[in-house]
Amino acid sequence: MHLHPLTRTVVALAAMALVATSVPTTALAQAHTRLSAAGDDRVTWSVVPADASGPDGRRVVDLELEPGERATERVAVTNHSADEVTFALSANDGYLTERGSFDMRPSAVPPTDGGAWITVPSQVVVGPGATEVVPFEVTSPADAVPGDHPAGVAASVLSGGEMQVESRVGVRVNLRTPGEVVASMEAELLDASYTQGPGLLEPGELVVRYAVVNDGTVALRTTSQVRAESTFGGAAAAAPAGEALEVLPGGRREVTVTVPGVWPVGPFGVEAVVSAAVAEGGPDVPVPADVTLADTAWALPLLHLLVLLALTLAAWAVRRALRARRARLDRLLERARAEGRAEAMASAD
Known about the structure:
mainly beta; Immunoglobulin-like; 3 domains; six-stranded antiparallel β-sheet; 21 strands; elongated
């Protein structure tokens, strides 16, 4: 797993307003570019796991510590810029963004979990084109709860004037305390709605939203099977298998699943079966039981009804016009007959 270049933090003069953003996972091992504090030069840098001699090829730092145990890890900070740069270093708790990207809590938020275990130097000076290996200490508390404690280590620079932007690039640090862990999850169905197909002869789709909460102590990977069954005997439909989603301890993920090929034939019984497994590299513990979510979604043929209504109105209008035309012809014919009778009577006199 990659750690994303972590967050942008907007710092106001009177108070810090920190805005977290996510970056694609593949950007971790790439250079990250931001304007320097002077605003006229670009600073490009990268941060990766390392050993004492330099980058060691890892994507993430995995570390298992007994309560009270201490370890030393390292990151390599590389300055790809043409000038010497002073990078601020920080550590904080890790979490997953709404899109599933790994991120760190903003710098102004004090760490309360794995980030509090990490001690890093306040800064590092890196020359142009150079790489500096920075050691950091990880100390597991004596009362550490068995399970996963995600964290991250980042290097950052500031840019801008009165409104300064802190740009961070970092490394994910997976901390784990051995012992009796709990793999547990809860799930909640949020919504099930129907979207009409683009044409009268094309099926629509059901959109099912649910939330998963990891209320255990180890990271989970969750999947779901979603199926829709027509109450009135229409064809059943199922969603294709989706990608497994990671949910960290204490984390919550909202998931949207689309069930294609649904015809608008009334109510559908929707069933979502949410399954979970311990994330890769996790302890061998019993997995949580599947959670089944059920609801009813109304797939109404609104487009078809509108077309039918339009055809009905058109037929009514045509029929009314024909009746009016027939009545007008009848009146004209009756008038002609009356005029003919009148002329005949005048001729007879």
